Amino acid sequence: MEWISVTSSNLSRVRYDETSQTLEVEFQNGNVYQYFDVPQQVFESLVGAESCGKYLNTNIKGYYRYARA
Question: Which of 13, 38, 51, 68 has the most CB within a 10 Å radius?
């Protein structure tokens, strides 16, 4: 999994593992969270979103299991 930098006031970078469908999100403060069972289309939409932070809050948080890495 390679990190992809995103332009966001809240997020720093993201990466995705297709095999396990695990999304990792690194926030500007350095915290990293893993979101599980995330479809690849959701990851691609996150990366392409006009506001990655808003997309994360609206479409990922509260919908997928997560853990702090």
Answer: 38
Identity of the residue numbered 22? T
Q: Write down the pTM of the prediction.
A: 0.95
d(CA 32, CA 68): 6
Q: What is the mean pLDDT of the chain?
A: 97
- What total number of domains does the chain contain? 1
Number of neighbouring beta carbons within 10 Å of residue 48:
10
H or E element in which residue 55 lies: helix 52-59
pLDDT at 10 over 90: yes
Q: How many whole angstroms separate alpha carbon 45 and alpha carbon 59?
A: 10
